[in-house]
Write a structure and sequence with these properties.
This protein is of the alpha/beta class. It has one domain: 3-Layer(aba) Sandwich (UDP-N-acetylmuramoyl-L-alanine:D-glutamate ligase), CATH 3.40.1190. It has 8 helices and 13 strands. Helix 1 packs across helix 7. The longest helix has 19 residues. This is PfkB family carbohydrate kinase.
Length: 302
């Protein structure tokens, strides 16, 4: 198994987009035009942002995704390369434009409105070297997009003894097929499995479907977590919120990094104390990311 004594190796499987982020005074009404205060154009998507955070914190990150050879896609790949994220592009031969996320961030609250096609334009076939990619990592993270690929990679990770983390932003078709191969799931309040109406319901559902360690993040409210024999909450540092876009992605990238550095993320070896420590450290990084506009400014200065 890869060593975690040096730079931990993370494999991130999921969505990559081109994010066009505008800072506005308010979300425009129908037929209204307005001038944005600021603009950021960057590679985005849950898996891509998590990989960028993992790399920034000192890990070696590889993103398994679909981007393509369109000029916009080449810009995405260049941006990720600048951030130290290696890309395995399973749509490299496609000349179609990549998924573009149009994001409006309200200056007064940091709340965001997002429109994107996400992964709907690609159905990815697992690559021939998938096992090698999995075997080379210390930890694998999945955002639930490109589900067939995610299930194939998570199955191999479980067989190879590599710990797996799920970014549960929302319940997606096929999530039930991924859960049996997930060791740690950290979900948003929008993650609503069938029959689950509360965070407690979601945690119970995950446990019943084989996930040993799970948590639900709720913005600035405490993170609720559950393990095999215990549970509790982790406080989230209070910050002046400038932009919540990508905060959950950063949380997952930081969590994966903490777990990989600890070398304790394999199911059966993670303790409640270590899980809480990893959640607390990840929450600190995610809160720092919320204090500045865009998905990159938090990386400046350390």
């Amino acid at each position: 198994m890869p060593t975690t004594r040096g730079r931990p190796e993370g494999l991130f499987v999921g969505l990559c987009t081109l994010d066009v982020i505008q800072l506005v005074d308010h979300v425009p009404a129908s037929d209204e035009k307005l001038t944005a205060r600021e603009q950021v154009v960057a590679a985005g998507g849950p898996a891509a942002n998590a990989a960028a955070a993992f790399s920034h914190l000192g890990g070696t990150a590889r993103l398994l995704t679909a981007i393509g050879s369109h000029p916009l896609g080449l810009g995405i790949t260049a941006d990720l390369d600048r951030l130290g994220v290696a890309v395995s592009d399973l749509a490299a031969d496609s000349a179609e434009p990549p998924a573009v996320s149009s994001v409006l961030v309200t200056a007064s609250s940091g709340e965001r409105a997002v429109a994107s096609t996400n992964a709907t334009s690609h159905r990815l076939t697992p690559p021939d070297d998938l096992y090698a990619l999995v075997a080379a990592c210390d930890i694998a993270e999945f955002d639930g997009h490109h589900m067939d690929l995610a299930v194939a990679a998570a199955r191999l990770a479980r067989a190879a003894g590599r710990p797996t983390v799920l970014d549960g932003g929302s319940w997606k078709d096929g999530t039930q097929n991924l859960l049996p191969f997930i060791d740690v799931a950290v979900c948003s309040a929008d993650f609503r499995p069938p029959g689950a109406g509360t965070a407690t319901d979601a945690l119970r559902f995950l446990r019943e479907h084989g996930v040993a360690w799970s948590a639900v993040s709720r913005g600035g409210r405490p993170i609720e977590w559950a393990g095999p024999d215990s549970g509790g909450t982790v406080e989230v540092p209070a910050v002046r919120v400038a932009d919540t876009l990508g905060a959950g992605d950063v949380l997952h990238g930081a969590l994966a990094h903490h777990l990989a550095v600890q070398g304790l993320a394999v199911q059966g070896h993670l303790t409640s104390q270590a899980f809480v420590q990893a959640l607390r450290g990840a929450a600190q990084v995610a809160s720092r990311a919320c204090a500045s506009f865009g998905t990159r400014a938090w990386m400046q200065g350390g």
